[in-house]
C-alpha cells in the first residue's frame, strides 16, 4: 500500500484509506471545482506510527481505566491530554520519515501548506466531526510538516472527538486517521457556507470574515452572516459583525491582527460574491446529492473550496444535550478574556452582595408567612445564580485547559500536567480560609489552658483574644466553614476542627509553596519576543480560571447556605406534621396549616434485592495528585462525616466540594468518584501536595469507612488492605 495518495488518485476503492475529507476533495478536484494542490497521507502511515512506537497499546491502556461509556467530559479531557503528550514526545520512526519526505518535498518544496485531518468516518452523511480534529495553517519546511502530521494524528484523541465518538457509540479503540497536506491559499476573505440552514431548510447560510479561515473556525473572529433563499437565490438578510481583527499568516503559523479602518466598515463579501459562494454550495450539493457545509476562501478574485462535508444537523436533528453543553464549554482566547472581566468585575461582586443581603433577616425571628416568602426569595436567588454559574463560571474553566494545551505544545514536557505548577495560588478562598484556621490552631497549641477550655462544653470565654479571632473568622467566612448553613449560628464544629488541627501528627501537610518567578521565567523562555505578551496574558487568564474553579463554588455556596438556613427553620416548625413534606412544599405548608402533599406513588414492581459482590481490592481511576499515602478511609456522605474526620485519614467521597475542603489540612490523601485533573478535589490536593485519585467508579460504595487504603497518585490506583 502506498502511504502517499495523490489527490486525483483517490478512487472509491481507496476512500477508506484516505478518509472522508480527502475523498470529498478528490471528488471536487475531478469535477473541475477549484481546490488547492494537495496530497493525502493514508491511514496506513498512522497505523505504522502507533504500532512501531508502542503508542497503540499505551492509548488502549489509557482508555481502559474505566468503561468508556461512563467517563465524564473532565475525564475525557484528562485522557486526551495524556494521549496528546504521548504523541508530542514520541518521534516518528526514521523509516516512516523516509517514505513521507520525498513526495511532500517534491510537491510543495518550501511553500507554506495547511495540514488537515481526514479521519475515517469523518464527514460522512451519518457523522460530522466538524471542528473536532485539528488543522494547522502556514506550516513550512519538511520537519515542521512532519511534526504537524503528528499533531493532527493526536487530535484523533481530542476530548471533543472522544465525546462525539462516545455519543455515536463508535468503537473508540479502532479509530484511525489520514491526513491532507494542502497548498496554503492566503485568502483575503474566507468563510463557511451551509447549503441548507440548520434552522430553516428553505435557506442557505453564508458566514464570512477577513483573512484566513482559522480565525472563524477557532472562534476568534466574529463572522458576517447572510441568509439566501435556496429556491431563487435571493439574499434575505445580512447580519453584520463587529469587525476588529483578522487571522493572518505569521512567521510561526498564524497571528491575530487588527483590521484597517476601511475594512472594519465594509462587509467581507459584496452581493455578487455572496451569490458566487451560494452557487458554489449548490454545485457541490448537486455533486454529492446532499446539502454540504463548505469551507471556502478568496485569493484575489478566485474562489477556492477548501473542504466540504455533509450537513448532519438540522432543525429536527441537532446536537445532543451532552455534546451541545460540551461544545459550549470550549471557548476562544478572546472570549475567555471577556468572561474573565465580566466574572471578576460584575458577577462576583453581585454574588457577594446577594449573599450579604440575607443575614439581615434571621429566619428564627420571622412569622410563618414571612418565613415562607423568605424561603421562596432565597431559593429564587440561589437558582438564578446557579444558572449564571453554568453559563459563565463553568465555561471559564476552559482557560486552564487552553493554557495546558499551549504549554504542552510549546514546551513538550514529559509530565502532561507540569503546567499546573504555574497555576497554584495561595489567594484561593479555601486556602485563605484554611490559613486562618491554622492560625487559630497555633494559638491553641501554644496555650494548654485554651486547649483544655475548648475540650470543655463551656467554651473558651476566659481567652478573649482567641474568642475575638474566632468571631472575626466567622464574620469573614461564615457558612464557608462547614459545608452547611449551621455555622452561621453554631460554631462548635469550627472549635472542634481547630482543636484537631492543633494536635494533629507532625506529618500533617501544609499548602505547597514554590518559587513562581523561576517557573514563570522558564515558561516564557520558550516563546519568541513577539509572542511573550500573549504567553503572559494566557498565564494570567489560566491563573484566574484555576483560582475561580475553586472560588466560584464557595461564592455560590454562601448563597445556598442562607437558603438552607431558612429551609431548616421551616422544617423545624413542621416537624409535628404526620406526613413528610418536601423542601419544595415547605413554603406552602407554612402558609396553610391544612396543606397535605399528594401521596407518594408506590413502585409495586420493585422487590427488595440483596447485592452480593466480591470485595474489590484494587480500584483504578485517574492520577490527579502525585504521591503515595496509606491511611484509614473516611467515606464522606454528609456533615456528620466531616465533623468526625480525624488527622491522617483519607477522604473518600463522590465529589469534594470547595465548602468541604476545610478538612484538607488533616487529610493524608483523597479518593473521588468524580474524575478529572481540574475538579475541586484535584486542585486542592495539588495545593497541599496530597496524593489524589479521581474517577474511581463506585468509590463510596466499594470503600467503607475504616478500610485501610493505599492511594497511588502517580498511577491512579487505590489498594484496599485487609
Structural class by sheet pairing and helices: alpha+beta
Distance between the termini: 56 Å
Which percent band covers the strand fraction? 15-25%
- Overall mean pLDDT stands at 83
| Largest sheet entry | 8 strands, mixed
Strand order of the largest sheet: 14-21-20-16-17-18-19-15
CATH class of the largest domain: Alpha Beta
Helicity, in percent? 40-55%
Using the alpha-carbon principal axes, give the shape: globular
Q: Give the total of beta strands.
A: 21
Name of the CATH homologous superfamily of the largest domain: ATP-grasp fold, A domain
**CATH architecture call of the largest domain:** 2-Layer Sandwich
Report low-confidence residues grouped into runs of 5 or more. 122-130, 314-329, 479-488, 507-513, 601-614
Radius of gyration: 29 Å
What CATH calls the topology of the largest domain is Dna Ligase, domain 1
Count of discrete alpha- or pi-helical segments spanning 4 or more residues: 24
Q: Can you tell me the number of structural domains? A: 5
Amino acid at each position: 500500500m502506498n502511504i502517499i495518495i495523490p489527490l486525483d488518485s483517490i478512487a472509491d476503492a481507496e476512500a477508506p484509506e484516505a478518509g472522508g475529507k480527502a475523498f470529498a476533495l478528490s471528488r471536487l478536484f475531478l469535477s473541475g471545482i477549484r481546490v488547492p494542490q494537495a496530497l493525502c497521507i493514508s491511514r496506513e502511515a498512522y497505523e505504522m506510527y502507533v504500532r512501531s512506537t508502542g503508542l497503540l497499546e499505551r492509548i488502549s491502556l489509557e482508555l481502559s481505566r474505566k468503561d468508556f461509556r461512563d467517563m465524564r467530559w473532565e475525564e475525557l479531557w484528562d485522557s486526551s491530554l495524556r494521549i496528546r503528550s504521548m504523541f508530542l514526545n514520541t518521534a516518528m520512526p526514521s523509516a516512516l520519515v523516509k517514505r513521507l519526505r520525498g513526495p511532500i518535498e517534491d510537491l510543495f518544496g518550501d511553500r507554506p501548506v495547511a495540514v488537515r485531518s481526514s479521519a475515517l468516518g469523518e464527514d460522512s452523511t451519518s457523522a460530522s466531526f466538524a471542528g473536532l480534529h485539528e488543522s494547522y495553517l502556514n506550516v513550512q519546511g519538511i520537519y515542521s510538516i512532519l511534526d504537524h502530521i503528528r499533531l493532527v494524528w493526536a487530535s484523533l484523541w481530542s476530548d471533543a472527538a472522544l465525546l462525539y465518538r462516545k455519543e455515536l457509540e463508535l468503537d473508540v479503540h479502532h479509530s484511525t486517521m489520514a491526513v491532507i497536506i494542502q497548498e496554503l491559499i492566503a485568502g483575503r476573505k474566507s468563510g463557511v457556507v451551509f447549503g441548507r440552514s440548520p434552522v430553516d431548510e428553505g435557506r442557505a447560510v453564508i458566514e464570512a470574515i477577513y483573512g484566513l479561515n482559522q480565525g472563524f473556525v477557532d472562534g476568534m473572529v466574529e463572522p458576517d452572516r447572510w441568509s439566501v433563499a435556496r429556491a431563487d437565490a435571493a439574499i434575505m438578510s445580512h447580519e453584520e459583525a463587529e469587525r476588529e481583527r483578522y487571522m493572518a499568516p505569521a512567521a510561526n503559523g498564524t497571528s491575530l491582527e487588527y483590521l484597517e479602518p476601511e475594512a472594519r466598515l465594509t462587509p467581507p463579501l459584496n452581493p455578487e460574491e455572496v451569490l458566487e459562494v451560494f452557487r458554489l454550495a449548490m454545485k457541490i450539493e448537486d455533486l454529492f446529492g446532499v446539502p454540504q457545509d463548505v469551507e471556502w476562501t478568496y485569493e484575489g478574485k478566485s474562489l477556492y473550496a477548501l473542504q466540504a462535508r455533509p450537513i448532519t444537523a438540522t432543525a429536527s436533528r441537532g446536537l445532543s444535550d451532552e455534546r451541545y453543553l460540551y461544545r459550549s464549554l470550549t471557548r476562544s482566547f478572546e472570549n475567555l478574556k471577556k468572561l474573565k472581566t465580566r466574572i471578576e468585575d460584575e458577577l462576583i461582586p453581585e454574588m457577594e452582595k446577594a449573599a450579604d443581603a440575607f443575614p439581615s433577616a434571621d429566619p428564627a425571628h420571622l412569622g410563618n408567612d414571612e418565613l415562607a416568602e423568605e424561603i421562596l426569595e432565597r431559593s429564587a436567588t440561589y437558582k438564578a445564580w446557579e444558572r449564571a454559574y453554568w453559563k459563565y463560571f463553568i465555561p471559564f474553566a476552559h482557560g486552564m485547559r487552553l493554557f495546558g494545551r499551549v504549554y504542552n505544545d510549546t514546551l513538550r514536557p514529559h509530565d502532561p500536567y507540569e503546567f499546573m505548577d504555574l497555576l497554584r495560588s495561595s489567594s484561593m478562598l479555601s486556602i485563605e480560609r484554611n490559613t486562618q484556621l491554622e492560625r487559630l490552631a497555633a494559638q491553641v497549641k501554644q496555650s494548654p489552658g485554651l486547649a483544655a477550655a475548648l475540650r470543655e462544653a463551656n467554651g473558651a470565654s476566659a481567652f478573649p483574644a482567641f474568642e475575638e479571632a474566632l468571631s472575626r473568622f466567622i464574620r469573614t467566612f461564615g457558612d464557608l466553614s462547614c459545608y452547611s448553613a449551621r455555622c452561621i449560628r453554631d460554631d462548635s464544629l469550627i472549635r472542634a476542627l481547630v482543636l484537631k488541627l492543633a494536635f494533629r501528627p507532625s506529618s500533617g501537610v501544609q499548602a505547597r509553596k514554590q518559587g513562581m518567578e523561576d517557573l514563570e521565567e522558564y515558561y516564557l523562555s520558550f516563546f519568541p519576543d513577539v509572542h511573550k505578551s500573549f504567553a503572559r496574558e494566557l498565564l494570567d487568564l489560566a491563573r484566574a480560571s484555576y483560582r475561580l474553579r475553586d472560588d466560584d463554588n464557595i461564592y455560590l455556596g454562601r448563597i445556598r447556605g442562607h437558603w438552607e438556613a431558612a429551609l431548616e427553620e421551616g422544617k423545624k416548625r413542621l416537624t409535628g406534621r404526620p406526613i413528610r413534606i418536601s423542601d419544595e412544599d415547605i413554603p406552602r405548608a407554612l402558609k396553610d396549616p391544612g396543606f397535605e402533599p399528594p401521596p407518594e406513588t408506590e413502585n409495586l414492581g420493585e422487590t427488595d434485592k440483596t447485592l452480593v459482590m466480591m470485595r474489590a481490592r484494587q480500584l483504578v481511576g485517574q492520577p490527579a495528585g502525585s504521591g503515595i499515602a496509606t491511611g484509614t478511609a473516611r467515606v464522606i456522605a454528609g456533615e456528620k462525616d466531616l465533623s468526625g474526620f480525624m488527622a491522617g485519614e483519607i477522604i473518600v467521597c463522590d465529589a469534594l466540594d470547595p465548602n468541604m475542603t476545610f478538612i484538607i489540612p488533616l487529610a493524608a490523601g483523597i479518593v473521588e468518584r468524580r474524575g478529572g485533573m481540574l475538579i475541586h478535589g484535584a486542585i486542592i490536593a495539588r495545593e497541599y501536595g496530597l496524593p489524589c485519585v479521581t474517577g474511581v467508579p463506585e468509590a463510596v460504595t466499594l470503600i467503607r469507612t475504616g478500610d485501610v487504603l493505599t492511594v497511588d497518585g502517580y498511577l491512579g490506583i487505590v489498594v484496599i488492605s485487609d
